[in-house]
């Protein structure tokens, strides 16, 4: 009986990346070995083969400028294979677990360019969150859409601060008046995490994907590049590309997506990107507007306090 083997062929790619070829069936093993034989015959010395059985395979020499790194399917992030994301739900769960009690800064930008004959209309939605822990964080966006009273409302300069005392909200309404609300606290992995995992679920399940190993801040990541969107849409999607940085434990550090959607005069070009920074080094202090509005009556009644206060029972 033949042993089932996993063979990984690895060779240097561009920008210091290491491209992966993973085979776990007999046909894939033969393909990996064939690649090694052809490259060695061509005089290339940058290929390494790792055989996980007791058989001995001698690796080709690795150039001094390259770092040899052993890898295999068992080291890839949950839900990820050499072909890209094969189980996006497993990857979402792993990302949730990795970020559940982590401090970080999370930035999002979505740029939509609507082109009509003789005119371009560019809109940019931005979001920034600073998370100290699951209970203390802030969040800001320049554009937020909520449903209230059966109507869609667009809120500008929307800010939240959450600590164990509650979820404190400040925003500008459609008349550009400053409004305040306070509700019960929501943990960061729900309030912020749900937005990041929605992006992972929506964008990373792409066809025609490949992986490369990269180092970010000295830490090993997998760079995923994919094309051909698989998410459901009522409009045609063209020129879809996605790139993501994924840590071996499933933490998706960054996503960048570009595509076109719609037809004729309704055609739009969309760029979406998010990135985690200051990982493990983010702290959040209670802002002055929260202190003034809810915790210091003398400041509320002072002559400089001109903002108005409203109460609301609706939830976002």
List keywords for this structure.
15-stranded antiparallel sheet; two-stranded antiparallel sheet; alpha+beta; disordered N terminus; 6 helices; disordered C terminus; about 325 residues
Can you offer a commentary on this structure?
- With 316 residues, the protein is of the alpha+beta class.
- The chain folds into 2 domains: 1-74, no CATH class; 104-277, no CATH class.
- The chain is built from 6 helices and 17 strands.
- The chain has a 15-stranded antiparallel β-sheet that branches. Strands 4-5 form a two-stranded antiparallel sheet.
- A hairpin with a 5-residue loop joins strand 11 (166-172) and strand 12.
- Helix 2 (88-99) packs antiparallel against helix 4.
- The longest helix has 16 residues, at 26-41.
- The chain is flat and about 55 Å long.
- Mean pLDDT is 75; it is low at 1-71 and 298-316.
- Give the topology string: H per helix, E per strand: EEHEEEHEEEEEEEHHEEEEEHH
Structural class: alpha+beta
Q: Work out the count of structural domains.
A: 2
Q: Span from first to last CA?
A: 61 Å
- Overall, the morphology is flat
As a percent range, the share of helical residues equals 10-25%
Total E-strand runs: 17
User: What is Rg?
Assistant: 25 Å
How much of the polypeptide forms β-strand, as a percent range?
35-45%
> What is the count of helical runs?
6
Low-confidence stretches: 1-71, 298-316
* Largest sheet geometry: 15 strands, antiparallel
Q: What is the typical, i.e. mean, pLDDT? A: 75
Task: Break the fold down into its secondary structure elements and pairings.
Layout: E1 7-12, E2 18-23, H1 26-41, E3 48-51, E4 80-81, E5 84-85, H2 88-99, E6 104-116, E7 119-131, E8 137-141, E9 144-148, E10 151-163, E11 166-172, E12 178-183, H3 188-191, H4 193-203, E13 206-216, E14 219-229, E15 237-246, E16 252-261, E17 268-277, H5 288-295, H6 297-300
Antiparallel strand pairs: 1-2, 1-3, 2-13, 4-5, 6-7, 6-17, 7-8, 8-10, 9-10, 10-11, 11-12, 13-14, 14-15, 15-16, 16-17
Helix pairs in contact: 2-4
């Amino acid at each position: 009986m033949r042993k089932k083997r996993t063979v990984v062929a690895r060779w240097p790619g561009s920008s210091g990346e290491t491209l992966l070829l993973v085979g776990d069936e007999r046909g894939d093993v033969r393909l990996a070995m064939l690649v090694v034989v052809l490259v060695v015959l061509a005089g290339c010395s940058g290929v390494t083969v790792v055989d996980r059985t007791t058989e001995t395979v001698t690796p080709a020499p690795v150039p001094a400028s390259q770092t040899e790194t052993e890898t295999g399917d068992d080291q890839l992030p949950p839900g990820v294979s050499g072909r890209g994301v094969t189980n996006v739900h497993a990857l979402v769960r792993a990302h949730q677990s990795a970020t559940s009690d982590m401090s970080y800064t999370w930035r999002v930008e979505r740029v939509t360019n609507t082109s009509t004959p003789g005119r371009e209309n560019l809109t940019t939605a931005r979001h920034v969150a600073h998370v100290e822990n699951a209970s203390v964080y802030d969040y800001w966006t320049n554009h937020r859409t909520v449903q209230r009273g059966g109507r869609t409302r667009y809120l500008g300069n929307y800010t939240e601060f959450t600590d164990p005392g509650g979820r404190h909200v400040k925003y500008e309404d459609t008349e550009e008046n400053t409004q305040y609300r306070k509700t019960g606290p929501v943990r960061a992995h729900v309030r912020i995490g749900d937005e990041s995992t929605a992006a992972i679920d929506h964008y990373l399940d792409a066809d025609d994907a490949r992986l490369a190993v990269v180092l970010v801040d000295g830490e090993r990541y997998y760079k995923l590049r994919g094309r051909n969107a698989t998410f459901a849409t009522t409009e045609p999607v063209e020129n879809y590309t996605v790139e993501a940085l994924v840590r071996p434990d499933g933490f998706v550090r960054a996503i960048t997506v570009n595509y076109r959607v719609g037809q004729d005069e309704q055609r739009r070009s969309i760029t979406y990107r998010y990135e985690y920074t200051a990982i493990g080094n983010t702290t959040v202090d209670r802002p002055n507007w929260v202190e003034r509005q809810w915790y210091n009556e003398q400041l509320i009644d002072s002559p400089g306090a001109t903002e108005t206060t409203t109460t609301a029972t609706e939830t976002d």
